[in-house]
Amino acid sequence: MEYLSTRDKTLRKSAAQAITMGLSRDGGLFTPVTFPSLSALEVETLCGMPYRKRAAYVMGKFLEEFRPEELNLFAKNAYGPDRFDHPDVAPLHKMDKRTWCLELWHGPTSAFKDMALQMLPQLLSASLRLTGEKKTACILAATSGDTGKAAMEGFADVDQTRILVFYPENGVSEIQKLQMVTQEGANVGVCAVKGNFDDAQNGVKRIFSDEALREQLAGRGYFLSSANSINWGRILPQVVYYISAYCDLLNAKEIKLGEPVNFCVPTGNFGNILACYYAKRMGLPVGKLICASNCNDVLTEFIRTGVYDRNREFHTTMSPSMDILISSNLERLLFDLSGGNDERVREYMDQLAETGRYEITPGMKKRLQEVFYGGFCSEEETASTIDMLYKYDYLIDTHTAVAAKVLTDYRHETGDKTPAVFVSTASPYKFGDSVLGSIGETPAEDSLERIAQMERVTGVRAPARLAGLKGKEIRFHDVTEKELMAEKVLEFLR
Ligand SMILES: *Cc1c(COP(=O)(O)O)cnc(C)c1O
Fold first, then answer.
1. What global pTM score does this model have?
2. Is 365 a catalytic residue?
3. Which atom of ligand 1 is nearest to the CA of 272?
4. Sequence-ordered strand ranges (E) for 298-348
5. For the chain, percent helix, then strand, then coil, each to nearest 5?
6. pLDDT at residue 146 is higher than 90
7. Mutate to test the pocket of ligand 1, among 322, 326, 402, 434 (most ligand atoms within 8 A of CB)
């Protein structure tokens, strides 16, 4: 299967090339030229498989140049019991007769990013072999909190790779920061940026398009690659859990084969929900895709009006992984909605860069609204949703709460009774401060003490890796101005 750039569809790459490069040189995102289909019979077959087999099977449809045994091995490594603390890997929690919560945080860093970032390093290593690349890949990642840690955890001590992570100095939770600055591994680096997530992400994008820097690094034996969700190797493993959730609902006899299921996804960079859209494109019976935002509601407005406008106040919220005003992966959706019109995508992206705004055509808007619903959730609503579900004996984090609330709103507004899954993207322990506050407790000052406090109060066991942060050595202290990120890269790759 070939991959094209969303900004130039004549530019074609193999999967291995697309994964190695991360971002196309023209700034576009690599997207499959066609979508393989998933038949009802295949869905039935997948029902009889464990998660790792489902992953290898689904990914194999997009990665023809990789051997099936190889993909099976990768999936076994990525989703094994030493990495995931739940035998189902991505289990469904039943809320009521027609509502489930898909828990995607049972991996090593307790956020859904592990679902992809336990896989990507293996795909990248194999891609380097397939393309004959001899240089070392330097992974640059901008993180709103969870990507950075999950990427480092996935890439730590992987051959022929280095990884440098930038995070907004005051834009991540204490636990997230602690997870990052204590990361082990000889090939990892972490640096805070004075600014917000968009500043960090734009800084990384600038570095990627800096040809002079590229040459300088090539001279030192490095090339730059990305672990952000712009990399196809990040999106693909995420397609799997939507298909897997559907299989689990079938296995539990909650739905019939072919019956549509709605998914509500807490959204930031539009990677997670895009993967759901791709599962639908393959033929999975997905009904409505509900895009849930916090009060950074640029996507809600976009879905409702067809106007994307980032010229608005940036809010720091208790769901920081969704504090994003430029959702990079939306570009892949635009490409698809426009019927593969690369020229139009380029125009929109130029307008976004120049004025911070673009408006899609009426035809695209119609297709967008047929599939997507957009809603957002205030800080108060996030807190009250956590509190309400806790009273029903289910503890969720702030990001998951946004999805739960927007799903409720969607059902009230539309009366749609289709079975629905809302996606849980982080363990409540990752955002203990806000979660404890939401259930009426006064959170302990110290973020590690809060973990113990939360266990005492709720009786829900903390993920072992988070509890284990206590007493870990802090390895990284670097902070940089956003204009000086390239210098940090040069320093890191001295
Ligand atoms: C990254 C992240 C999100 C947003 O996912 P996108 O793929 O960027 O839309 C939501 N919740 C949590 C906890 C995350 O880490």
1. 0.94
2. no
3. 7
4. 307-309
5. 50, 20, 35
6. no
7. 322
